[in-house]
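Reopening: Lon proteolytic domain-containing protein still failing for me.
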Amino acid sequence: MFSRLTRPRAVAVCALPVVALLATAAFAPLPFSLAQPGQTTNVLGEDEGDPVITISGAPTRETSGQLRMTTIVATSPDVDVTLGDVIDAWFRTDRAVMPRDSVYPSGKSTREIEQYNTEQMKQSQNAATEAALNHLDLKDKNIKVTLRLADVGGPSAGLLFSLGIVDKLKGDGDGGDLTGGRTIAGTGTIDAGGKVGAVGGVALKTQAARRDGATVFLVPKDECSDAKAELPKGLRLIPVTTLKGAVSALEALESGKGSVPAC
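Support: Ran it again with your exact input. Result attached.
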């Protein structure tokens, strides 16, 4: 036996499953990570009391200015991100919603991911050292470079490590600093041949850079459009594809001679 529903009651009854579905969706975990600007570190200076770059087997220079590597901070892989979190982040310029698989390797535990990121950093440091020594034609010399950076994983500091090594060993080649005394930040992977690669999260990294005093930001050329999307005022973008190109751009910026590429 069926009773006839009035229109308002029928609408209410039909709406209940929809409301329940939306409520479930609002609190259900989604396959995303939320990211925000992270720390920056001057690779020409110290981190937790130890020099970031230590070189033996060759004379080094006293440097001025800063070369700041940049990071983003993402929610841990075991933290649930809900629809409400995503909507909140969507309307903020200092937050980004990223597919979790683009931030963390899928199918791995938190411990395995930490080990993976540590290994990525180690490989990046080795490549950065080799790239810098190759650039300076010092590969076959008995030079030892030690890189230390606590609590940071992944390969995105490679370019800045290489530039820091070059600045400590050679500077601009004419007795001056590669930085020109400026605070310069940037990001980018690097391989042993000096090729710079994309990293992701550059719009957040530019915010971290400007927050910490940078006026120039070195960005992988393929990520220029992303870096320009939320570019803070007072921060100049310089696109790079190789270590050699990055060094040349900084030398031109310091001397005022030659062209400095722009996004």
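The first helix runs from residue 7 to 27. If you still see a failure, please send the error message rather than a screenshot.
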